[in-house]
Structure formats: structure tokens, C-alpha cells
Design a protein that fits this description.
The complex is a heterodimer of chains A (375) and B (260).
Chain A: H1 6-22, H2 34-61, H3 67-90, H4 98-123, H5 127-151, H6 157-181, H7 187-211, H8 218-223, H9 231-260, H10 262-267, H11 272-294, H12 299-313, H13 317-341, H14 346-364
Helix pairs in contact in A: 2-3, 2-4, 2-9, 2-13, 4-9, 4-11, 4-12, 4-13, 5-6, 5-7, 5-11, 5-12, 6-7, 6-9, 6-11, 9-11, 11-12, 12-13, 12-14, 13-14
Chain B: E1 3-7, E2 17-28, E3 31-42, E4 47-50, H1 57-65, E5 72-77, E6 80-81, E7 91-94, H2 109-114, H3 118-121, H4 128-140, H5 156-169, E8 174-178, H6 186-201, E9 205-210, H7 213-222, E10 228-230, H8 236-241, H9 244-249
Helix pairs in contact in B: 4-5, 6-7
Classes of the chains: A mainly alpha (375), B alpha/beta (260).
Chain lengths: 375, 260
Amino acid sequence: MSQDTADPAEESTDAVTESGGATTERFPQSGGLRQPLEYLGLGVTALLAVAMVALVAFDWLQTLSGPLGGVGEAGFGLYEEAGRALDSLLGTNVFWVSTTLRAVATGVLVGVMALLVGAFLVHRQMALIGETLAHTAFAGVAIGVVVAGVLGLSGSAGQLVLVALVVSALAALGLQWLTAHTDAYGDVPIAITLAGSFALATLVISWGEGNFPVAIDIRGFLFGSHAIVTAGGARLIGVLTVVVVALVVLNYKQFLFITFDEQAARVARLNVRRYNSLLIVMTAVVVVGAMQILGVILVAGMLVIPSAAASQVAGSFREVLVLSVLFGQVSVLVGLGTAIIWSLPSGGAIILVGVCLYLATVAVSGRSAGQLSTH
Amino acid sequence: MSGVVDRTDTAVADGDTVVDMADVTFGYGDTVAVEEVSLSVEAGEFLGILGPNGSGKTTLLHLMIGLKQPDAGTVELFGEPTDAFGEGERIGYVAQRATDRGDAMPISVRETVLMGRFPHAGHGRIGSEDRAAVDRALDRVGIAALANRPIDQLSGGQRQRTFIARALAAEADLLALDEPTVGVDVDSRTAFYDMLDELNSEGMTIAPLEPNAATLTTPVHTAPCPTRRLCHHGDTTSFLESDAIEAAYGRRSGIVDHHG
């Protein structure tokens, strides 16, 4: 180290004091309580998510025969007990029902995986990708109906979601290719894919209805319904959540680098295209998972709104992730609970809670909302 | 049209070639941005890439570090063709207006500097060695006290220092800067180039790009080691006195051939 470092160091000390006085402190930089609280919340969320993965696992086990089936029944029974306890507390009679339990599990897990991906999407200015992929997933559901009809399958929601997953993932890669090979602004291929896939869905649904005896709950997929979450659908979400969380943990540094400074990441010889593909396919996965409970039209909100709220008040990207997940959980638990108790559409309720959280963070923070692009 | 100012008496002269461009041509469609440029950068050099807007200097920089591949000619980084070069941690790069990103994305100074360690860590965990490198880098550029601040609360000069710290944390051998002092006030600009000079005298190869020749050469004159050369091995004074500026900023078209 050179001796001459004293100069710039001194100068920047001045600058520190200066900027400390001049900048608006972002809410709530209160004492040392904030971080422990955030991590406490994250810990509770993690426990909740693990409990929900276990619920899904027990639900699957109880379909088996033999001792494992017994374990599954006993385990699932515990959740039903917990549901009854909640019912007696709230004076309701819904939370012990297995479909409700599955819906809650799906909601909690979607709340975790959607936000882990959404925080990156929002800051890669890809907020509308989720909306587009939801529409392709809807086309996937329609194609699933045809596939089920042709193969003589039952066409259960679980099967349809699986087909939607494949269609949506392929569409995600197609969309990335289209964006890379056209000179249009970034959102033109997105708009085209959005409209195109929905157009395809309307044609396939109308044609499929006449030719195949598979009933499809279009309203459920469009607006989201906790009632369409099946055991198979919940199991899929359980698996996807574990995969998505693992992928984000494994690739966190790479995703952060390409999100913050794509060109420098390229110079650092990161395979930017590969991580972009991974991120966009993960988005497709999350969208298909979230679609069951939120509906095609609202699914993008789950990716974007809690992350946008978190970005209003966070001081680091790690904090964005933590707060995104927390805001997401609050939205899901409050929204879903409200929807279940008063028989409302779950998607609308979850998203509106999220919007309220967002507005609250805008009100209390110094960061201008306009700085976050929503395209 | 762009010019290149280059220091002759390098502190570190171990003879390693950092960048070697031979007869490089690159165009966007029919528009040629860089034509038959040959240029080599030795380890420890301070290479100022000068030229007005639209002179192709960003393209030249992108070609040097492999963000673009030439239409004709070859570019080698540390002796390897840029498209095969894999040691990304050896290049610290700050893109044009890269420092604005923090306005929309909450990210702390420490998180930004830590990115310099990502090529080292790959998919592995960030270890104590990485953290130590980050602390050293923050210390070196004099922003250790700001480590936990979101970068949108920093001044332009402090943000640039954050990005330089990222390159230092990476232990980069080459620092490529695209218009690093845009949006930075004059005093901070001078301090910034003084710091670059110090890093250069410690052995780092530095290639800043400036749209305005004065921005680059003024601090250079006040710096301890002011002798730089123009594209063809001239120093700053001869660059300023030569017709290179007129050639670069005047009406004539074409690229200065950097080969002496």
C-alpha cells in the first residue's frame, strides 16, 4: 500500500459526514432492532415453509399402503388437528378440511418461491415477464386438456398444471430467443407473446370443449381459487419450491451480479445467457405453481408487488430478498385467510393485501416509487 | 476517431502484454466504428482512450475486454483470444453510467464490492479470504466507513470508488473504465484520477475512456508520473501539441492508427 493513501481517505471522511447529514434516511433505520426482527420473521417463515413441505409429504404418504401410509395419515392428522384448533379459535369450520390445508400449504410455498425469483425480476426490469408466462401457462392448461383427451387421461388439475409447466418453460425460452433476435424494445416481444399465447388458449379451449370430455374450470384458472388446489397440484408445488429455493441458493451470486451489472458480469466471464435462461425458466415454474391459487391474471402481482414494496425500504439487496419473502407471506396468509373465511377469490384477496403493503412502504420511505421501472 | 494516450515509463515493466490488438476492424452494419486498429497494452501501463462522442472509443474498449468480437483482426487478453479468455477476475470493468444502477436497486457498498469476489468463488461460499479482500479494497479507496450504506446515498465520486474497490477486491490486473467521471464534480474528479495514478504506480494496468481530452490530461499533469504517450508512444505534452487532437476532434474521418 502506498503512503499516499492518506489524502483520499481524509477527503472521503469529510464526504461521509457530509452525505450523512444531507441524505434522507430511509425508513425505518431504527436502532439495532430492525435486522433481528427481519431475521426472526425469516426464521418463522422458513419453519412455516418446512412445515408446509412436510404437510404435502404426509399428504402424499397417506396415499400409499403399508406402514408409510400409516405415517402419512398420522402426520396429516396432526395438521387437521391444528386446523380444528384454528377453527375453534376463529369460530369457523373450514381450516380442518384437507383441501383448505392444501391451499394454505400451496400459498405459503408460492409466497416463498415467487418472491425469491421476483426480487431478481423486478430489478432486471422484467416485471411483466411473469404476466406473460402466466398467459402461456394458461395456453398450456388448454393444451393439457387436449393432451389429456387424446391420451384418455382424467384431465385432473394436477395433470393440466404439469402440461402448463412444460409449455410455459418452453415459451420462456422462446421469449428469450425472440428478445435476443429482434431489435424491438424489450417489452414488444413480451406483449406479443402475452397476446399470442392467450389467443392460442381461447382457440384451443373452444375447440377442445367440443371434442374432448374433459371439464376445465376456466374461471378457477383465470381468477385463482383455493378450491382448485388438488393433492397432486400441492405436491407439485412442494417439489418446485424445494428446487427453486435450492437453485436460488446455489446461484445467488450469479443472479445478483447479472441483475446489478450485466455488462460487468459478462466481462467477469459469467455465462450471462445461461443464468438469464435459468431465471426465466424458474419464473415459468413459479408462475405455473402460483397460477392455481392466484389465477392467470393476478399471478404477476405475486412476483412483483412484495419485491417492489421491499425495495422501497431496503438498504441492501439481501434485505430486499428477506423483506420480499416476509411481505409475500403476510399477503398470502392474510389474503388467503380472508378468502377462505368469507369465500372470496383467493387471488384478488392476496394481491390486494400486497398492494396495501406496497402503498404503506411508499408512504413511509424516502425512495421515489418512480425509480422502479414496472416494465 | 479516437486517440490513445499512453504512459511510457511504467513502474512495473515485466514485459507481459495485457491487451494485444492487431488490425482490428469492427462495424455496426455498414458503419465502421473501429478500423484496422493495432494497439498493445503492456502490464502497468496507463492508457487513456480519448475521443469525442461517436468516435468509437467505447467500441474500442469493448473489443479490448471481449464484450465485442472483431469483424476482422485479432484481440488477445493476457495472451489469449478474448472469446476464449476465461479468467474474468483479472479484468475490472465499470460500464458507462453503471454507477446509476443503485438508484433503483437497493444494494449496499459492501455487496457491490463483494461482487468482485464472485468470479473467484463461483458457486462456492464466500469465505473469510473473500471478506478480507473486500475490507482491504474498501480501505484502499477510502470508503470503509460507508460499507453498509446503500449506494444511492453516495456521491458520484464515492460511487466510482465503490466500483474501483470492486475491481481491487477481484485482484484485477486490468481496470477498464468507460467515462468514469461523468456526473462527478471537478474536485472529486481530480482526486479520482490521483487515486488511479496511485493504483497504476502500484502495478495495475488502467485504461480509462474520456470524451474530453482535458478531463484526462489535466490531473495527469499534476500526478506524480505525468508522462504518457499518445497512441504512437508519445507523451501527454506531445499529444496535446500534436495534431492528434485536431485529427480526433476535427472534421476528418477515420481512426488514428495506433501503431507507431
